[in-house]
Amino acid sequence: MRSRGGGGGAMAAAAAAAAAAPAPEAWPELELAERERRRELLLTGPGLEQRVREAGGRLPPRLFTLPLLHYLEVSGCGSLREPGPGLAQGLPQLHSLVLRRNALGPGLSPELGPLPALRVLDLSGNALEALPPGQGLGPAEPPGLPQLQSLNLSGNRLRELPADLPRCAPRLQTLNLTGNRLDSFPAALFRPGALPLLSELAAADNCLRELSPDVAHLTSLKTLDLSNNQLSEVPAELADCPKLKEVNFRGNKLTDRRLEKMVHGCQTKSILEYLRSGGRGGGRGKGRTDGPEKEEARRRRRERRRRESGEGEEEEVGSTSRLLLRVLHVSENPTPLTVHVNAAVKDVRPFIVGAVVRGMDLQAGNALRRFLTSQTKLHEDICEKRTAATIATHDLRAVRGPLVYTARPPQDLKIVPLGRKEVKAKDLVRQLQLEAEEHRKQKKRQNVSGLHRYLHLLDGKENYPCLVDADGDVISFPPITNSEKTKIKKTTSDLFLEVTSATSLQTCKEIMDALVLKMAEINKYTLENKEDGSLSDPEADAVSGPPLGPSTSPSAEKDGSAPLVVEQVRVLDEDGHLRVVYPSKTDLGCAAPHVTVIR
Fold first, then answer.
1. pTM of structure
2. pLDDT band at residue 135, thresholds of 50, 70 and 90?
3. What segment(s) does the record annotate as region Disordered (predicted)?
4. SS3 for 498?
5. DSSP 3-state of 531
6. Which one, of 65, 84, 452, lies nearest residue 74 by Cα?
7. Fewer Cβ atoms within 10 Å of its own Cβ: the N or the C terminal residue of the chain?
8. Is 72 exposed, middle or buried (0-12, 13-18, 19+ CB in 10 A)?
9. Which DSSP string corresponds to 372-423?
10. Tell me: the pLDDT tens digits for 255-308?
């Protein structure tokens, strides 16, 4: 009996010790980020929702003890209702904060700011209804977000914008309000000098009833999208925005019948000229009635503003000729390229869209450098540092189809990365990690550059995605690198493009749209500005050999307006069923003003 009693006491003691012992680490990502002094952190995946729910619908307090973080993303978590206290105090160096597709709302308690270094804030796809003082983005005095450049509030339930937004974020350049319930803009948004750098304003799919004539005070505005609202008038003063290049008023009920037709079929330049000349689209049906002298004075002021802002040259180039994009359908193509998707990518990076573009001129001057630089910028901006999607571009001559998009264990995936020898994916990732650590030591700082910035996107993945050609060679390893086999050179004129994402097919399509239109702009500039080949990038020349002369350019024509041909690429599942084709009838629907799409 005594021995049993003693055993029972020992068991009780053991149970008590176990209860007193610390619980297993519920947030291994935070422990890893702290140990490796990381600057980037991504929290997502099926296990995140339960952990956030257990934390009371907030982010764990330990997250706010990582003061070195520059990039933080927490996405796709239906149990995240508020960030939680301590974010502003604990993450003072944060440059990018992505909290999309969660359940934040109806407000933000406590408010996010002040975040003095924040440049990108993405709160899209949440349940925000209002952002009043104390439950919003941050204080107005002093500015809570003084360096913020990009704000995405799309896909929420906002009925109004905070009136102090311009004071809270005075350096804002991009504002996305698409898909909310707004019926008006606050007057402070258009106050003279309030947002001097704002170049993109998107507020499609709201309930807007009026656009103030004071919109003309947005002197840097280049893109305005107010489609699918309840506007009845467009103020004539909109034409006074000196840099405005693209407007979208489709899906409204404009009382001016002619303007209603123009917004569906005419380019921005024609719409602005109509408003400027006294069309009945002006505020409350009143057109411009000023005499020719005042109109000429306005024209001169606009031209002076363009010259001072560096836009004059761009306007002159834009008006000399147009660029055509011709879509070649699969039925018209005797040898269409196809991509077969393996089920192995379902839990890794399931979405892919492809396209073939023919007729690029990368030989002249710095055309290749401009193309590669534009791809980098797309990765930084619309691809959200490759977290939303990754772009890969290939020399079509080196691509052997059909292609297979699949996933392999890191030890089984072999690739010849750009500028390197053949290596297994696990060894490549390890090499990049060592390079990143060496970079930190040499620079005596924590941030890294190049491919090293994207290594965290592979954390926790048992298999890595890859695109394999008909020879069995891996030509793409997203989101890290392409293969040397299909590297773009100055002699490349026909390209295969791919966009992969863990988010959605629509994300892939939107980014492919942006890439194709950017290529059209680059080609247009190259054809209209005959650069001397001797001014080209010496590194690119070393790779591809001496450039051909202008007369041998594969896409140049006498009139300088050769079209780019965009060939449809089909993506099929393992059973051969169509998953997506690009470009479809709905793709490339928002082409730039100087681009015409022929289908």
1. 0.51
2. confident
3. 1-25, 275-318, 530-562
4. strand
5. coil
6. 84
7. N
8. buried
9. HHHHHHHHHTTTTTTTS-EEEEEEGGG--SSEEEEEE-TTT-EE-BTTS--E
10. 998 898 888 888 888 899 888 887 644 443 344 444 555 555 655 655 655 554
What's the per-residue H, E or C state across 46-104? HHHHHHHHHCCCCCCHHHHHCCCCCEEEECCCCCCCCCCCCHHHHCCCCCEEECCCCCC
Q: Which pLDDT tens digit goes with each residue over 104-126?
A: 989 887 888 899 999 999 999 99
Asked whether 79 and 57 are in contact (CB, 8 A), the reply is yes
Give the Cα separation of 538 and 543 in Å (integer). 9
367-380 vs 505-528: helix crossing angle, rounded to 10: 150
Return the residue matching tokens 């192995």: 344
3-state helix, strand, coil in the chain (%, to 5): 35, 15, 50
Write out the H or E segment, with its range, that includes residue 467. strand 464-468
In the chain, count of helices (H) and strands (E)? 13, 23
The H-assigned helical ranges of 209-291 are 257-265, 268-276
Say how many C-beta atoms besides its own lie within 10 A of residue 68's C-beta.
Answer: 18
Give the pLDDT band (50/70/90) at residue 558.
very low
Please, which residues have CB within 8 angstroms of residue 117's CB and are 6 or more apart in sequence? 92, 93, 94, 95, 147
